[in-house]
Amino acid sequence: MSIHDPDDRRVADALERAGFGGALAQTTAARLTALGEELRHQRGAVASDAWFVPGRIEVLGKHTDYAGGRSLVCAVERGIAAVSAARDDGRLTVTDTRRQASVVLDQASPASTTWTTYPATVFTRLRRNFPDRIRGADVVFESDLPSASGMSSSSAVMIVVLLALAHASRLDASPEWAANIENDEDLAAYAATIENGSAFRNLASESGVGTRGGSEDHTAILCSRPGRLAQYSYRPTRHERSIALPPELVLAIGVSGVRAQKTGNAREGYNRAAHGIERILELWRRTSGRRDETLADAISSAPGAAARIRALVAHDEPRLVDRFDHFVEESMVLVPLAGDQLEQGALDAFGPSVDRSQDLAERLLGNQVPETISLARLARERGAIAASAFGAGFGGSAWALVERGDADDFLARWQKAYARAHPGPASRSIFFFTRPGPAALRISA
Description:
Number of strands: 12
Shape: globular
Largest sheet: 8 strands, mixed
Structural class: alpha+beta
Distance between the termini: 5 Å
Order of helices and strands: HHEEEEHEHHHHEEEHHHHHHEEHHEE
Strand content: 15-25%
C-alpha cells in the first residue's frame, strides 16, 4: 500500500473499512500522503507506516477515572494524522507540521516545557521499560484537533509517538511487553501511566508530564468503535458496554476559546481534584485499616461504606465533602443511568441526567469556567437534546446532542448566541459536528 501516491485509493479504502465516512476517508488519505512527502523531504526517509489517532469526547464521567470510577466516552472524527519510519540509531525525531517545529531526541535529551515534553516523556519511559530495544523512529504528524480544547490533543500526541516507537522497535515481541500488555485496554492504561508518571504492572515508573489524570482519554483514543459510545470503569480498565448512537443524531462540538491547559501554571488547578480523592482515600485507609486501591473500591467494600466515608470526610476534611459527593453521584448514579437511557432511546430523560452532571460539575467539582457553563446552557436553550462541558475543565469545550436534520441551523444559532455572550473567547472558538469515530489505527505502507 502506498502513502505517497495521491491517486492510490487503497489508503482511503483502508480508512473506510476502519469506520471513516467516504469524504473523511479521502481527506485523511490526502493528509497522510502529504505527510509522507514531508518525511521524505525532511529526513530522506520513506514512511513505513501511517497512523490516525483521534481525539475524544467525555460524554459523562468528569474526573472519575483516576478514582476507579466510570465514564461514557467516544472518539471524535478529528485527530492526528502521522507517518513514521524506523531508525537504527536509537534516536527519535518528531515534526509537527502545523507548528512547523521539530525535535530530535536521544539519550541526552534535555527536559522541556513546550509541546516537545510529550514525545520526550514517551521516549524516556520506553527506554527505561524496554532497555536496549528502542530502535528509534522518524515521526511527522499534523493535527486538526483544537489545542487545549478538552479533546486530549496532548494525549493523542503521546499515543502517536508510543505507537510509532513500539512498532518500529517490535516491542510486542519482547517478553516485557507480552507479560504486561495483553490488549488495547492494557495499552491505554500503560499510556496513561507514561503521562502521569506512575508504574504499570512490572513496567517501572518514570517522570510524567506533571498531571495526575487517569486512563479515560487513552482508553477512548485506543478502544473506541465507530458509531458507538463506550462505558468503561478504570483501575483496572474494564469495558462495561457499548451503546449505539442512532444514525439520525450527531454531536455538535463548541470549543470555548478558553484554553484548558494541563501544563505550566494551570497544572495545580487540574490536579486539585485528584489530590482531593487521594486525601479522602488516605482518611479511609487510616481509619478502616483497609488498603483499597481506589475510592471506588472503598465505597464498594461493604454495605454502608459510602456513608462511613462521607462521615469521615465531613469530620476531618469538610472542604472535601463536595468532591466526595460529586464522585459518588457522577460515577455510581449518572453514568449508568444515562447509559440505560440511551440504550432504551429515552432521550427525554437523557437530557435531564446530563443537565444534572453539568450542575454537579459547576457546584461541587468546581472545574467549570463561565464560558463552558454558557456553552452547555445555550445549547439546551436552543434545542439540544442534551449538552455538557467535557474534559479536565478550567476551559475547553462542550458537546451537544442534536438531530441531524436540524444540525446546521442549530450550530449557527449556538455559535451566534455564544458570540453575543462571550465575544472575546468566541473570536478563538471553533464549532463543528462529529459522529463517534474509530479508535487509533495503523495503516501499513
